[in-house]
């Protein structure tokens, strides 16, 4: 039976309680994030139980992005929305500023689209209002590298730069038509349109991420 990401995070945190309770230092930071579709700000808490290891709990809010795209004969106005929370492990292999990071990410990533007027769905051209929604799985993994103040540096001002990728999995699309004036496209043609929209956005199952953190370690 599959376990939810919340359950998995709970089990991991429970297993780490002894180490985290004795953490040498705790840090808080403001974080700026940018992907190829969205950018935004967030916050993170860092716990340093060992000399070369950090655990990071992060929350990111991203600005909505709008753009246009034509898929399968339909010109969409698209809006991208992204929220993400994460539990990451940072390892400083050389006890310097360079670090490798990996962990779990809970995401809410959706792209919605609208189109109106004459549209072509399969072999059928009609006048309608088209609404589309593409959603990604709600959990994924993060792998990346970065540079920042290592746990051994003690208290005070801290900074970090990260570059990595969120592996989110393949999206799924849903398309609905309303206010149809003319021929009605078949269910099979609408399903094909959904597959084409999914295929067009499938490269984003891996979402590159760049982040900058500034904060204080206690």
How would you explain this protein's 3D organization?
The chain has 218 residues and is mainly beta. It has a single domain, classed as Porin (Beta Barrel), CATH 2.40.160. It is 15% helix and 63% strand. It is elongated. The two termini are 41 Å apart. The model has no long low-confidence stretch (mean pLDDT 86).
Based on the structure given, which CATH architecture is correct?
Beta Barrel
Q: Strand-residue fraction?
A: over 45%
Gross morphology: elongated
CATH topology category name: Porin
The sequence of SSEs as H and E is HEEEEEEEEEEHE
Q: Can you identify the CATH class?
A: Mainly Beta
Largest sheet: 8 strands, antiparallel, barrel
The domain count comes to 1
Strands side by side in the biggest sheet = 1-2-3-5-6-8-9-11
Query: What structural class results from the helix and strand content?
Result: mainly beta
Contiguous uncertain segments of 5+ residues: none
Number of strands: 11
Radius of gyration: 22 Å
Summarize this structure as a short list of keywords or feature phrases:
mainly beta, Porin, 2 helices, 11 strands, elongated
Q: Secondary structure elements and their pairing?
A:
Layout: H1 5-21, E1 25-35, E2 39-50, E3 53-62, E4 65-71, E5 74-91, E6 98-121, E7 124-135, E8 139-148, E9 156-167, E10 172-181, H2 187-201, E11 206-217
Antiparallel strand pairs: 1-2, 1-11, 2-3, 3-5, 4-5, 5-6, 6-7, 6-8, 7-10, 8-9, 9-11
């Amino acid at each position: 039976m599959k376990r939810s990401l919340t359950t998995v995070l709970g089990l991991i945190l429970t297993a780490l309680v002894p180490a985290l309770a004795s953490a040498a230092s705790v840090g808080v930071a403001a974080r700026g994030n940018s992907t190829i579709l969205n950018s935004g700000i967030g916050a993170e808490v860092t716990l340093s139980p060992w000399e070369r290891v950090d655990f990071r709990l992060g929350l990111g809010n991203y600005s909505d992005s709008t753009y246009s795209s034509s898929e399968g004969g339909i010109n969409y106005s698209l809006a991208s929305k992204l929220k993400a929370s994460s539990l990451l492990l940072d390892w400083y292999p050389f006890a310097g500023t360079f670090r490798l990071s990996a962990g779990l990410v809970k995401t809410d990533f959706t792209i919605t689209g609208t189109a109106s007027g004459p549209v072509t769905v399969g072999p059928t051209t009609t006048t309608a209002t088209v609404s589309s929604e593409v959603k990604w799985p709600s959990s994924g993994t993060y792998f990346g590298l970065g540079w920042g103040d290592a746990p051994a540096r003690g208290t005070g001002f801290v900074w970090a730069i990260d570059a990595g990728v969120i592996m989110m999995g393949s999206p799924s699309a849903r398309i609905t038509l309303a206010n149809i004036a003319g021929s009605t496209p078949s269910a099979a043609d609408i399903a094909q349109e959904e597959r084409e929209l999914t295929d067009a956005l499938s490269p984003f199952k891996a979402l590159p991420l760049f982040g900058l953190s500034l904060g204080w370690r206690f």
